[in-house]
Structures are given as C-alpha cells and as structure tokens.
Amino acid sequence: MLSGGQRQRLGIARAFLKDAPILILDEATSALDTESEAEIQAALDHLMRDRTVLAVAHRLSTVIGFDRIVVLQDGRVVEDGNPAQLRGHGGVFDGLWQRQAAGFEQAAPDAS
Questions:
Q1: 112 belongs to a structural domain
Q2: Is 110 a residue whose pLDDT tops 90?
Q3: Domain hosting residue 94, numbered range
Q4: GO terms for molecular function, please (predicted)?
Q5: Number of structural domains in the chain
Q6: Residue 59 placed within a domain
Q7: pLDDT of 72 over the 80 cut
Q8: What is the C-alpha R_g of the chain?
Q9: What is the per-residue pLDDT across 1-47, written as a single tens digit (0 to 9) for each?
C-alpha cells in the first residue's frame, strides 16, 4: 500500500510522462514534509512551464509563482490577480499568506 506522499509522487510522474497541455493539481504537495515539498515543487515548476495549470492549494507556496490566482471563499470568487497584486492589498489571499508566513517564522530555528 502506498502512502499519501508516494501516491502524490506517482501522480506527478504520470503527469510528466503524459505531457498534457493542461495540468490539474489538487493539493499537489499536501502529504509531503517540508524537504520533500521543496524537491517536488522544483519538479512541478519544470512540469508547469508552458502549460495551463488549474491548482487547488491551501499551501500558498505552491501557487506563489503562478501568473494568475483566483481566490474562492464559500464557493464564490472573491479575488483574482497575480500573486504580487493579491499580497499587497490586505484581502483574503494576503491574510492567508500572512498567517502561513507567520507559521514559517515560528517554525524557524532561533538564530540568536
């Protein structure tokens, strides 16, 4: 039996082999630890190049390099723009980004 992370890796490998012009990702890095996520994200960045990508993501680091992000809340589109636009105006995406970034800072080892 495969773990969640192994199933995700297998799905990504299939996407590489299929070479489809449209890629659909549903929480592509959700079952991965931070180190594995970085490796898979690098592979996904290569895979997504010159393709249309529809991605569902709660880890915003997965979509920060996208050209366009559509933010849904309660089934409705509440924001639409590129990451820089969405991070700069205090909306839903920006609030989520700030909370996730705060989590990254809390998890970082103390340098003092």
A1: no
A2: no
A3: 4-107
A4: ABC-type oligopeptide transporter activity; ATP binding; ATP hydrolysis activity
A5: 1
A6: yes
A7: yes
A8: 15
A9: 877 777 777 887 888 888 888 988 887 666 667 777 777 778 788 88
**Token output for 73:** 């809340």
| H runs (alpha helix) in the chain | 4-18, 34-48, 83-87, 92-107
Q: Which residues contact 32 (CB under 8 A, 6 or more apart)?
A: 5, 8, 40
User: Which residues, in sequence order, are CB contacts of 56 under 8 Å at separation 6+?
Assistant: 25, 26, 27
Of residues 57, 86, 24, the one with CA closest to residue 78: 86
Residue 102, in any domain of the structure? yes
CATH number, domain of 64, equals 3.40.50.300
Q: What pTM does this model have?
A: 0.70
Nearest partner of 11 among 50, 62, 47, 64, judged by Cα? 47
